[in-house]
Amino acid sequence: SLCFFFSFRSSAKLIAPLGCLVSRQKHTLPDLPYDYGALEPHISAEIMQLHHSKHHATYVNNLNVAEEKYKEALAKGDVTAQVSLQPALKFNGGGHINHTIFWTNLSPNGGGEPKGELLEAIKRDFGSFANFKEKLTAVSVGVQGSGWGWLGYNKEQGRLQIAACANQDPLQGTTGLIPLLGIDVWEHAYYLQYKNVRPDYLKAIWNVINWENVSSRYAASKK
């Protein structure tokens, strides 16, 4: 990165990286690519509005606060404070990363099956699309408490993998897999509509999966 580049060419080696931190942009809540009610009847407008404008917004705000405190701890050389801020960075940073992917993984024109290279890769790595759907659903249903079910790409092995992450742990930062499709199984993602019946929500969400988005993520991850 530019910050890294200049840090080796500055006589005051610490000034450049800190300067980069000072000038960094604050994280912002991304706009949804569709209206709150666009995913009905599968996901209600009320859920989408709360999920996006309240839950995701909270992760963004708390991430900015944690980064600000981290910046101060770096400037002071306070390693203890830096370490103590790691859980907040992981949780809120993960929440921001995960939801930013999630909104684009969904579409009012979604559902059905993927096409092309992604479908071929799914058949190769899971036997069939139906088998893949069953496995990702089962992994997502099985998340204890709060978390996510993911389809990720293992770049080293060149294959697709299914994984579950607890809480807001981001897939790539905690497993190394590149995220292609995430299914949020926190109760706030479905409770108002599906109550405690997570399998009903998971059955419904397949009707709004944006396979074009998942396919473009897959193509980008192979480069």
TrEMBL record:
Destroys superoxide anion radicals which are normally produced within the cells and which are toxic to biological systems. Destroys radicals which are normally produced within the cells and which are toxic to biological systems. Residues 114-217 form the Manganese/iron superoxide dismutase C-terminal domain. Keywords: Manganese, Metal-binding, Mitochondrion, Nitration, Oxidoreductase. This is Superoxide dismutase. Residues 26-107 form the Manganese/iron superoxide dismutase N-terminal domain. It comes from Indicator maculatus. Pfam families: Sod_Fe_C, Sod_Fe_N. Belongs to the iron/manganese superoxide dismutase family. GO terms for molecular function: manganese ion binding; superoxide dismutase activity. It is an enzyme of class 1 (oxidoreductase). Its main location: mitochondrion. One of its GO terms (cellular component) is mitochondrial matrix. It is found in: Mitochondrion matrix. It catalyses: 2 superoxide + 2 H(+) = H2O2 + O2. Mn(2+) binds at residues 51, 99, 184, 188. Its cofactor is Mn(2+). Its EC number is 1.15.1.1. Homotetramer.
